[in-house]
Amino acid sequence: MRRITSFLVGAVMGGLVGTTLAMLLAPYSGKELRAQMQARAQQLRDDLNAAAAARRAELEQQLAVLRSPRVPPEA
Predict the structure, then answer these.
(1) What's the pTM?
(2) pLDDT higher than 90, residue 14
(3) pLDDT of residue 75
(4) SS3 at position 50
(5) What is the pLDDT of residues 22-47, one digit of tens each?
(6) Where are the domains of the chain?
(7) Whole-angstrom distance, CA of residue 16 vs CA of residue 44
(8) How far does the chain reach from its first CA to its final CA, in angstroms?
(9) DSSP code of residue 26
């Protein structure tokens, strides 16, 4: 039980130190950083939507080919 408590205290302390250092050493202000993160998240959403639409079109084309009647080869 003591090992778990010791680990949890160390993890919390490490998180606090890391957060503090990140805030002190960040090259941008909070407002600029949030704006950049929002822009990046929006770009990521747009990229994912475009990739999903392209994949959907590809799969629909493959489905159409599979659903089309097959013509037996002439013997």
Answers:
(1) 0.53
(2) yes
(3) 62
(4) helix
(5) 888 888 887 888 899 899 999 999 99
(6) 29-66
(7) 29
(8) 79
(9) -
